[in-house]
Design a protein that fits this description.
Elements (H helix, E strand, L loop, with lengths): L17 E2 L2 H11 L18 H13 L11 E10 L8 E14 L2 E12 L4 E12 L6
Antiparallel strand pairs: 1-3, 2-5, 3-4, 4-5
Amino acid sequence: MAITEAHAGRRYPPTDPYHVSAAKIAEFATALGDDNPRYRGDSPIAPPTFAAVISSRAWHQLFTDPELELSVERIVHGDQRFTFVRPLRPGDIVIAMASIDRVRLRAGSELIYATVDITGRDTELICTAQATFSHAREPATL
């Protein structure tokens, strides 16, 4: 069965733990071309969009859920928002858990509104990532 509005509320299991390190933070900042000193040194914090690295593991569970019948090549990432309780720091060991908030069917496409909660080992909420994805049910014809 393809994804429907009835899939709203579906939750996925936690991802494997992700170990945040100063090296990973610095590599990410370098890839962004961001030389902000807050992302380097003895006590760096992660750039806000670093949460996408962790969130992507949880999105993968949603995208590959066989019941939803999604084709990754027909998904467009439309919107992304991060809400932080605190920044990610070296030494954090975090997990991510995805949930489907809402699904809307529109003219051969599904709009999927989903959330990923990123938490620490002690279930402390660190960040919430919200995203909207558009999935074209049928491949475009040329």
